[in-house]
Design a protein that fits this description.
Helix content: 55-70%
Mean pLDDT: 75
Coiled coil: 11-81
Pfam families: Frigida
InterPro entries: Frigida (IPR012474)
Region (Disordered): 455-480
Radius of gyration: 40 Å
Distance between the termini: 72 Å
Largest sheet: 2 strands, antiparallel
Shape: extended
Number of strands: 2
Protein name: FRIGIDA-like protein
Strand order of the largest sheet: 1-2
Structural class: mainly alpha
Oligomer: single chain
Strand content: under 5%
C-alpha cells in the first residue's frame, strides 16, 4: 500500500512540474540567440498523454491486485472446508472403531459370564474353565497389542496371566527349552530347517521358559568344535556347519531377548558367574582362531563370527585384546551381522583399517558395504573401488594347466567366468547402494548378457561335438564294448563351481535374511572368489546358492 501511495503522489505532482517546465521554456524563448523548433503546445500535449497512460496502467494494476486477493481468500476458505471434512471423517472412523471395540468387550464379557455360569455346575468343569480363562482370555488392550506386534517383536511377547509362556506354534520348542535339552533343541532346529524363519522368531519366547537362558545357550555351544569328520568327497561335514550356524543363531536370539528386557532383568540373566563361563569358552576357542586364514575364510568364517557373537552376547569383549578382535573382522566381512557386531564391540574406530585390509586383499565389494555402513564413503570412494574390482577380475592370473591342449582358450574361459561373476556382484552392489547416477549399470548389464550368450553358445558347441551313444543291436544283444575314452572329451572345461556364486544377500545396510530358496535371477547372483571348500554342495559336486539361514 505504501508503494501505491507513493506512485499516486508522483502522478499528482506532474501538474506542478509541467508549470515549472512552462516557466523555463518562457525563459528560453526570451533569449534571442536560441532558436527552438518545438512549440510549447506540443510539449504540453505530450506530457499530458504520458500522465493519462500512467494513471490508466496504475488503475489496472490495482484491479489485478484486488482480484488476486479475492482468489487467495476463496482458496483459503476452500482448504479450510476440506480440512474440516477430513477431520469429520477421521472422527467418524474413530467412533466406528470405538463401537467395534465396545462390541468386542461386550462379547468377551458375555462369554466370560457364560463360562462362569457353566462352571458353577460342577467342580471338574471349574478347573478346566478357570485355566482356560487364565490363558485364553487376555484383555482387549493386550489383544490389540498382540495384533500390532505379531511380526515377531519381543515387546509383544505372549505370556499368560499366570506367568507361563505361551507355547505358540511350536510347543515342542518350548518343551525343549523348559527341559534345558540343548541336544534336542539342535536336532529340532535341524529337522525343521524349512521353517527356520518362524522358528527364529519363536526362540526368544521359548528361552523365557528356561530357568537360566544364558547357561542353556552356553550349554548348546559344547559341540561347536567337535572333531570334523570329512565326507567321502573330502568336504566338511554339512551337519557340523549346520550346528555352528544354529549356535550363532541361539546367541543372537539370547541377545534379542536381553534387549527386550530392562537392565535389572538382563543383569539377573547375565550374572558374573555366567560371564566367567562364557569367558572360559572364549579362551578355549582363541587358539583355534589363530589357524584361520583371511584368504581361506573369504569373509564368511563361522568360527570367527561365533567368537565375536559370544563376546557381544555375554558382554565380555573388554576382557580381550581389541587388536585381535579387529583382526577377525575381515574374516566375517560378508556376514550380514558384521556392522552391528562391530558397533556393539566398540570397533567402529577401527573400520578404516579393516576396509584397507579388504581392499588390499581384493575384496572391494565387502569394502564398499562396510564403507556405507560406517559412513566412510568420502575416504573410500565406492565407484573407484568397484572399478578396481572389475579391472582385477579381467586380468589373466593363472597359466594354462598341464595337459590342456588349448592353453590360450582355457585361460580365456577362466577370465570370462571371473569377469562375469564380478560384473554381477558389481551390478548388485550398485543397485543396493543406489549408485546408478555415479556408475551407470547399462554398460555392465550389456556386458553380462554378452558373456552369458558366449558361455551358452560354447556349451552348445561342446555338447554337439560329443560322440553319440551306441545304439542297441537288432538281435537284442547289447552294444560291443568300446574304448571308454571315446566317450570323453580331451578338452577339460572350467568347472562350474570354480568360482561359486557370491552370497550377496544383504539389503543394505545389512538387512534381515531372505529365508527362502528361490533361484537367483540373471543379475541377482554374483561371485566373489569363494573357496569351493567353504561353499554349499550336494553330493554330486555341483554347488547351489542358498540364502543365509542363521
Amino acid at each position: 500500500m505504501e508503494d501505491n501511495q507513493s506512485v499516486a503522489m508522483l502522478i499528482d505532482s506532474t501538474t506542478s512540474k509541467i508549470k515549472q517546465l512552462q516557466k523555463a521554456f518562457a525563459e528560453l524563448e526570451s533569449h534571442r540567440a536560441v532558436t527552438l523548433n518545438l512549440k510549447w503546445k506540443e510539449l504540453e500535449e505530450h506530457f499530458h498523454g504520458l500522465e493519462k497512460s500512467l494513471k490508466r496502467r496504475f488503475h489496472e494494476l490495482e484491479d489485478q491486485e484486488k482480484e488476486f486477493e479475492n482468489r487467495t481468500t476463496e482458496s483459503r476458505q476452500l482448504l479450510e472446508k476440506r480440512e474440516a471434512a477430513i477431520v469429520a471423517k477421521e472422527q467418524a472412523s474413530l467412533e466406528r472403531l470405538q463401537e467395534k471395540r465396545d462390541a468386542a468387550v461386550f462379547a468377551i464379557t458375555t462369554a466370560r459370564d457364560k463360562h462362569r455360569k457353566v462352571s458353577s455346575k460342577g467342580p471338574a468343569i471349574v478347573t478346566v474353565v478357570s485355566v482356560e480363562s487364565q490363558v485364553e482370555e487376555p484383555s482387549v488392550e493386550d489383544a490389540s497389542q498382540d495384533v500390532i506386534t505379531s511380526g515377531g517383536n519381543l515387546e509383544g511377547m505372549k505370556c499368560s496371566e499366570n506367568g507361563n509362556v505361551d507355547e505358540g506354534s511350536y510347543p515342542e520348542l518350548v518343551k525343549l527349552c523348559k527341559e534345558m535339552d540343548s541336544e534336542g533343541l539342535h536336532k529340532f532346529i535341524s529337522d525343521n530347517r524349512k521353517n527356520l524363519a518362524s522358528i527364529r522368531e519363536e526362540i526368544p519366547f521359548a528361552l523365557k521358559a528356561t530357568t537360566n537362558p544364558a547357561c542353556f545357550v552356553l550349554e548348546s555351544l559344547k559341540d561347536f568344535y567337535r572333531v570334523e569328520a570329512p565326507n567321502m568327497d573330502g568336504k566338511k561335514d554339512a551337519n557340523l556347519v549346520g550346528l555352528r550356524r544354529t549356535c550363532i543363531m541361539l546367541m543372537e536370539c539370547l541377545s534379542k531377548l536381553l534387549t527386550s528386557l530392562d537392565s535389572v532383568s538382563a543383569s539377573e540373566i547375565i550374572t558374573e558367574e555366567v560371564k566367567e563361563q562364557a569367558k572360559a569358552i572364549a579362551e578355549e576357542w582363541t587358539p583355534k582362531l589363530d589357524t584361520l586364514d583371511l584368504d581361506d575364510s573369504n569373509g564368511n568364517s563361522l568360527q570367527a563370527h561365533a567368537f565375536l557373537q559370544l563376546l557381544d552376547t555375554f558382554g565380555i569383549a573388554s576382557d580381550f585384546d581389541e587388536e585381535e578382535l579387529t583382526r577377525l573382522i575381515p574374516m566375517v566381512s560378508r556376514r550380514r551381522q558384521t556392522a552391528d557386531l562391530c558397533r556393539s564391540l566398540g570397533l567402529s574406530e577401527k573400520m578404516p583399517g579393516v576396509i584397507e585390509v579388504l581392499v588390499n586383499s581384493g575384496r572391494q565389494i565387502d569394502a564398499v558395504n562396510l564403507a556405507f555402513a560406517f559412513e566412510l564413503t568420502e575416504q573410500f570412494s565406492p565407484v573407484a573401488l568397484l572399478k578396481s574390482y572389475l579391472k582385477e577380475a579381467r586380468k589373466v592370473s593363472s597359466p594354462a594347466k598341464p595337459g590342456n591342449t588349448s592353453p590360450t582358450g582355457g585361460v580365456q574361459n577362466e577370465v570370462n567366468e571371473r569377469e562375469l561373476a564380478a560384473l554381477k556382484a558389481v551390478v548388485k552392489c550398485i543397485e543396493e547402494h543406489k549408485l546408478e547416477e555415479q556408475y551407470p549399470v547399462d554398460p555392465l548389464q550389456k556386458r553380462v548378457l554378452h558373456l552369458e550368450k558366449a558361455k551358452a553358445d560354447k556349451k552348445r558347441v561342446t555338447e554337439a561335438t560329443k560322440p553319440q551313444p551306441k545304439r542297441p543291436r537288432a538281435n537284442g544283444v547289447g552294444p560291443r564294448v568300446t574304448n571308454v575314452a571315446a566317450d570323453k572329451t580331451f578338452y577339460p572345461r572350467v568347472a562350474e563351481n570354480r568360482y561359486p556364486q557370491y552370497m550377496y544377500d544383504r539389503t543394505y545396510v545389512y538387512p534381515g535374511p531372505n529365508d527362502n530358496h528361490c533361484p537367483p535371477t540373471l543379475l541377482s547372483s554374483a561371485t566373489y572368489s569363494i573357496n569351493p571348500g567353504h561353499g554349499n554342495y550336494f553330493a554330486n559336486g555341483y554347488q547351489y546358492q542358498t540364502a543365509y539361514l542363521h
